[in-house]
Amino acid sequence: MTLEIKGIKKKFDHHYAVDGISLRVEKGEMFGMLGANGAGKTTSFRMILGLLDPTEGTVTWDGERITYKRTHLVGYLPEERGLFPKLTVKEQLLYLMRLKGMTKPEIMKEMRHWLERFQVPEYENKKVEELSKGNQQKIQFMAAVLHKPELLILDEPFSGLDPVNSDMLKKAVLDLQREGTTIVFSSHQMSNVEELCEDLIMLKRGKPVLHGNLREIKRSYGIKSVSIRADYELDFIESVNGVYSMEKSKHGVVVKVENENVAEDIFRKITEKGFVRKFEMEEPSLHDIFIDKVGGDADE
Ligand SMILES: Nc1ncnc2c1ncn2[C@@H]1O[C@H](COP(=O)(O)OP(=O)(O)OP(=O)(O)O)[C@@H](O)[C@H]1O
């Protein structure tokens, strides 16, 4: 079972919100979709789910388009949360999950399982409007997973959650992946993406600017960060060719360099001056890569 996206584009009026995305996500994979606000993530999700027709290109799950007849195979946590505030959690989930083809006993069993898991069993008969935003999100998440979808699309699942709830949800997402669910999610929090996904795509104004395996992307990414500590003045490093920036920290300096050769050059120069207490090269964080690739479009 594979999610296969081939050359999708979506044009609104005169501009392309999504402009040529192709990717494959294999069964059981966790895939990250990144981009600044307005980059085209939600529009892509809607096309994957068949809620929006692509202007060009195709999306298939297990070789077929996702039409309303196949919605029981997919789960969706939309960015704009869409629960009915006046219904109780139970009424809400009974309504939504029946649309996915589940029976009442199945829904009740799964609902109680998830309410226990999220440590809110007492919410069953509470109205949604009585719950905090974070707890409403747990219910919305349940509405995306109760029917055990094969493909799960999560649009900003961790936004607005406190660290405890965020971890709880992360664990749930990882367990679903372990059970074989294929998951595509978006997040503006790069640490979540680093923690969860193996492969990702980064969008800028609807176009992919990076695509592939996270570890591979980091390894092959030119810019590295070098942390240096020595017993003498290091200001001269700033003027070495290929140095992007230098920041002083409590224990030395952190230098961003164009590539490994520049780091080697710096290493040679400082060892000529005397004893080096620390010289450590780090791969860039996804946050750094995001800022570099998406640049002015990001409001992070
Ligand atoms: N129905 C629509 N009609 C016209 N323009 C739209 C419509 N939906 C989205 N857009 C535009 O398409 C672009 C991409 O929007 P989209 O919501 O997909 O971005 P996003 O990456 O999900 O952003 P965010 O991180 O803010 O959620 C934006 O410029 C948006 O204004």
Task: Report what the structure shows.
InterPro entries: AAA+_ATPase, ABC_transporter-like_ATP-bd, ABC_transporter_ATP-binding, DrrA1/2-like_C, P-loop_NTPase. By secondary structure, this protein is of the alpha/beta class. It is built from nine helices and 13 strands. It folds into two domains: 216 residues, P-loop containing nucleotide triphosphate hydrolases (Rossmann fold, 3-Layer(aba) Sandwich), CATH 3.40.50; 61 residues, YebC, transcriptional regulation domain (Alpha-Beta Plaits). Helices cover 33% and strands 30% of the residues. Strands 5-6-7-3-8-9 form a six-stranded mixed β-sheet, with helices on both faces. Strands 11-12-10-13 form a four-stranded antiparallel β-sheet, covered by helices on one side. Helix 2 packs across helix 3. The longest helix is centred in the middle third of the chain and has 16 residues. The mean pLDDT is 92. The site of adenosine-5'-triphosphate (ATP) has 11 residues, from helix 1.
The CATH first-level class of the largest domain comes to Alpha Beta
Structural class: alpha/beta
Number of strands: 13
CATH topology of the largest domain: Rossmann fold
Explain the layout of strands and helices.
Layout: E1 2-12, E2 15-26, E3 30-35, H1 41-48, E4 56-61, E5 74-77, H2 89-99, H3 104-117, H4 133-145, E6 151-155, H5 163-178, E7 182-186, H6 190-196, E8 199-204, E9 207-213, H7 214-220, E10 224-230, E11 243-249, E12 252-257, H8 260-273, E13 276-282, H9 286-294
Helix pairs in contact: 2-3
This protein binds adenosine-5'-triphosphate.
